[in-house]
Amino acid sequence: MYLPKPFQKFKAQYPEIAAHYEELGIMCQSGGPLDPKTRYLVNLGIAIGAGSPGAVKSHARKALEHGARREELYHSLLLALTTVGFPAMIAAMGWVEEVLAAEGT
After folding, report:
1. What's domain 34-103's superfamily in CATH?
2. Which of 22, 32, 61, 105 has its CA 20 to 30 A from that of 2?
3. In the chain, which stretches have pLDDT less than 70?
């Protein structure tokens, strides 16, 4: 599994806090009825709204790993247009396209 270098450094510097953070993430992911693909598409939309390149890439990767198709990622991007605006959507599109290129899809 891909982990960005800043997160790897955080884990090395604060292993106990990182473990609790990861546990919280697992609990949040399993805390409701949504299937994994849908959860990661929702997370992708949240990351787009937050303007976080790392989170957009992470959730795009995870959505793909859980069966999302390229078209579903693009639909998530399109849905962001009227909520967060054109510049944010276009930036996120670039981040998702980086993931798609790296995944070869």
Report:
1. AhpD-like (1.20.1290.10)
2. 32
3. none
